[in-house]
Write a structure and sequence with these properties.
Layout: H1 10-19, H2 26-36, E1 41-44, H3 51-62, E2 73-76, H4 80-93, E3 101-104, H5 110-118, E4 123-126, H6 128-136, E5 147-151, H7 153-158, H8 162-171, E6 177-182, H9 187-196, E7 201-204, E8 215-221, H10 225-238, E9 245-248, H11 252-265, E10 270-273, H12 279-290, E11 296-299, E12 314-317, H13 324-331, E13 341-347, H14 352-362, E14 368-369, H15 383-386, H16 390-394, H17 416-428
Cytidine-5'-diphosphate binds near residues 25 and 51.
């Protein structure tokens, strides 16, 4: 199967040729004709398997030249980095097309963006907050949106964009096509689909939450944060395959702390970015990392989703994320587009439940490696570790050995499809009727 077999036009084929892409990925193959048919689509495929082009190609195939000022396609993503990335991807695909695309996001001058919108455009890529602000100024009309894409929707919920998203959906014309793509599905997302989508076609390349086979996963048990730092330093000092490393920490403060620590042993090799850094700094740091001008980037879940940096060699999770889906997205920053990748997880006893939840979601245990010989085990505790009473830690149940652990009912997050009603009922402890579908 090549792109020639899809019903594309020569402008798109030439752009794909310039990019060096000849074969559509499975999700791209599966989604194309369904989007072309005009039906609503929910697309699930693993990280890095080309979900972006899966929706962009059929959208661009259908978009005709127009001098109309109001956008006809709206794509909403959770972070500024993703807006920038997506606008870049659309520009690459539209080299031979006369299509106007703009990206808008918070943290930058709204008047400049008003001007961009007022100039007229075909495709608007936006973060939810800024989109609502612009729509309220009346500079931006969403009345002509025919296709609406939500990419990485679960992260929007995590970031508290729920109200904005509902606002946006209310501003859109009723007659429109809705497209949603993700590598994971949560109950909340499924509920949103139930309310705002019109009998969507589910296109699944794999079960939601399946990690890429090409990502080699490793797990180290460490007693506390400072031992994790010692381990991180040890790995970076001894493993020279760690060339383009993305390091995740749980919070902005902890990300800064990890950075401070690495500066001591590896000066000027790592950058740190999170929501408190300026937009310029964020953009430059990602660009520098993409170009391989630094060895690694330390970040928070701000960069866990969607970001497509080529050839990330290692993803290191200094903390074990409490939401198992977050882990899937974090490690999915490596192993992209048919490359191999290594994902390393550091886990304390207090994070054991989170680790089990991840393994349950993946239906796979992460192989455990012993701590390197001679690694300094730190006695020093950080504040959040001090507040855990040691006796409670001692009473933790022993780790499951051998075969795969039993699924805990609360962690069953697979096969959402028709079972979500049941799941929602479990969550809310009472029968729930689905809200009527909008026509
Ligand atoms: O959204 P998802 O995590 O599935 O992946 P993506 O951000 O669309 O990234 C897919 C990567 O594969 C990008 O670097 C694309 O340039 C590349 N690619 C593709 O999307 N489609 C192909 N047929 C070949 C390569
Ligand atoms: Mg994506």
């Amino acid at each position: 199967m090549t792109f020639e077999n899809l019903n594309l036009n020569s402008a798109l084929l030439n752009a794909l040729h310039d990019l060096g892409f000849t074969q559509p990925t499975p999700i791209q193959q599966k989604v194309f004709s369904v989007v072309m048919s005009g039906r609503d689509v929910v697309g699930v495929a693993q990280t890095g398997t080309g979900k972006t082009f899966a929706y962009l190609l059929p959208i661009l195939r259908q978009l005709t030249f127009s001098s109309q000022k109001e956008p006809r396609v709206l794509i909403v993503v959770p972070t500024r980095e993703l807006v920038i990335q997506l606008v870049g991807e659309i520009k690459k695909l539209t080299t031979y097309l006369n299509i106007r695309v703009e990206g808008v996001y918070g943290g930058t001058n709204i008047n400049t963006q008003k001007q961009l919108v007022a100039n007229g455009l075909d495709i608007l890529v936006a973060t939810p907050g800024r989109l609502v602000d612009l729509a309220l100024t009346r500079v931006l009309s969403l009345k002509h949106i025919r296709q609406f894409v939500i990419d990485e929707v679960d992260e929007m919920f995590n970031l508290g964009f729920r109200a904005q998203l509902t606002n946006i959906l209310d501003l859109l014309p009723r007659k429109r096509q809705n497209l949603l793509f993700s590598a994971t599905m949560t109950e909340e997302v499924d509920e949103l689909i139930g309310i705002f989508f019109n009998a969507p076609v589910n296109v699944e390349a794999v079960r939601a939450g399946t990690p890429l086979e090409r990502i080699e996963q490793r797990l180290y048990h460490a007693p506390n944060f400072h031992t994790k730092i010692n381990l991180l330093k040890h790995l970076l000092a001894t493993d020279d395959t760690m060339q383009k490393v993305l390091i995740f920490g749980p919070t902005k403060r902890m990300a800064d702390l990890i950075h401070e620590q690495l500066e001591i042993d590896f000066p000027d090799q790592f950058d740190v970015i999170h929501a408190n850094k300026s937009q310029n700094f964020r953009m430059n740091a990602v660009a520098k990392f993409e170009k391989g001008l630094c060895r690694g980037l330390i970040t928070t879940d701000l960069l866990a989703r969607g970001l497509d940096v080529s050839d990330v060699t290692h993803v290191i999770n200094v903390d074990t994320p409490a939401e198992p889906e977050t882990y899937i997205h974090r490690i999915g920053r490596t192993g992209r587009a048919d490359r191999d990748g290594i994902a390393i997880l550091f886990s304390t006893d207090a994070e054991h439940d989170a680790q089990t939840a991840i393994e349950t979601l993946m239906e796979k245990e992460i192989p455990v490696l012993p701590l390197p010989e001679g690694l300094a085990i730190s006695e020093q505790l950080i504040e959040s570790e001090r507040s855990v009473i040691p006796e409670i830690q001692l009473k933790l149940p022993p780790r499951p050995v051998g075969a795969f652990h039993e699924k805990k009912a609360k962690n069953k997050k697979v096969n959402l499809g028709n079972k979500t009603k049941h799941l929602r009922e479990m969550k809310y402890k009472k029968p729930i009727k689905k809200a009527p579908k909008r026509k």
